[in-house]
TrEMBL record:
<feature type="domain" description="Aminoglycoside phosphotransferase">
    <location>
        <begin position="29"/>
        <end position="262"/>
    </location>
</feature>
<dbReference type="GO" id="GO:0016301">
    <property type="term" value="F:kinase activity"/>
</dbReference>
<dbReference type="InterPro" id="IPR051678">
    <property type="entry name" value="AGP_Transferase"/>
</dbReference>
<dbReference type="InterPro" id="IPR011009">
    <property type="entry name" value="Kinase-like_dom_sf"/>
</dbReference>
<dbReference type="Pfam" id="PF01636">
    <property type="entry name" value="APH"/>
</dbReference>
<keyword id="KW-0808">Transferase</keyword>
<keyword id="KW-0418">Kinase</keyword>
<dbReference type="InterPro" id="IPR002575">
    <property type="entry name" value="Aminoglycoside_PTrfase"/>
</dbReference>
<protein>
    <submittedName>
        <fullName>Aminoglycoside phosphotransferase (APT) family kinase protein</fullName>
    </submittedName>
</protein>
Length: 305
């Protein structure tokens, strides 16, 4: 999606001067331009998450509401993985012409998993499995997860993805629609745990292995069918990585009775993977970094892996 507003370092500094003046002197640089947000690194330890279009503004508020609830459980499951709970809240600024809420969050050192070789991701696939097992629990205590009509819903509520117009895509999509629907309680979902939202600390020396350093961008957080999140495993891993992640999910007690998710869930997950791959390939000119993720997913899905 095209940005509706050009978020620059100058704008970020002006917002800090107006609302968080103690941070305004920090060095700033644009770290990433995402689908919804611009990330501006502030000094060594902080990052500003600034929406670049109106549709992303509620997602900032969803993160603020959900992450403080989820972080303690996730940190117990994977203590070495950063869960970026917002540290400060930014408000719209009429004076600066910036109309949306924004956040200051902790910075996580590393590189996007999307920039690392797919086989190397097998090293931290079990870590992601443990995190997802801890996350995929029903909200408790009367908590209502943020509403998201695009994640965690029955696949029949999603538009038929473009890749379903191909012969192998049609087979996958039809199988996903025919699979038994999710009939358990809605579970917490990240919403977008694809490799552009997974931060990896590269191996520091010969013989060492990469590790998962952070899971970022919880803007699509909601509750629903876990297959919605599990579909991202085809975007992230090869068959060996997915198997390692799935084994860790089961060992960590995911699914009904802690026995792991059933085959119908994984069949629906392939349908979600088709949805995500189609979206990532839809605008390669606007999001060139996402297209290779979609291409990898197609290769995995269409090869029956």
């Amino acid at each position: 999606m095209r940005a509706e507003l050009d978020v620059t370092v100058a704008l970020a500094r002006a917002l800090l001067r107006e609302q968080h003046p103690d941070l305004a002197a920090l060095p700033l640089r644009v770290a990433a331009n995402g689908w919804d947000n611009v990330m501006v690194r502030a000094g060594e330890r902080l990052v500003l998450r600034l929406p670049r279009r109106a549709a992303a503004a509620p997602l900032v508020e969803h993160e603020r509401a959900a992450l403080p609830l989820l972080a303690p459980t996730l940190r117990r499951a994977v203590p070495d993985v950063v869960v970026p709970v917002p540290l400060r809240a930014g408000a719209p600024s009429a004076a600066l012409g910036y109309p949306w809420p924004w956040s200051v969050a902790p910075w996580a050192d590393g590189v996007a998993a999307a920039a690392t070789p797919v086989p190397a991701r097998r090293a931290w696939a079990p870590t992601l499995g443990r995190l997802l097992a801890a996350l995929h629990r029903p909200p408790g205590g009367g908590v209502l997860a943020p509403h998201n009509p695009f994640r965690g819903v029955p696949l029949r509520q999603r538009a038929r993805p473009a890749l379903a117009e191909t012969e192998p895509g049609a087979r996958l999509w039809d199988a996903a629609l025919a699979a038994a629907p999710y009939d358990g309680p809605p579970v917490w979902l990240h919403g977008d745990p694809h490799p552009a939202n997974l931060v990896v600390a590269p191996a520091s020396h010969h013989g060492a292995r990469d590790r998962l350093a952070a899971v970022v961008d919880f803007g699509d957080v909601t509750a629903g069918d876990p297959a919605s999140d599990l579909g991202s495993l085809w975007l992230t891993f090869d068959a060996a990585g997915r198997a390692a992640c799935r084994d860790a999910l089961t060992t960590a007690g995911a699914g009904p009775g802690g026995a792991g998710w059933d085959e119908a869930t994984w069949t629906r997950a392939r349908g979600w993977a088709l949805v995500y791959a189609s979206a990532m390939l839809a605008h390669p000119d606007l999001h060139p970094g996402l297209a290779p993720i979609g291409e990898h997913a197609i290769g995995e899905l269409f090869a029956g892996r």
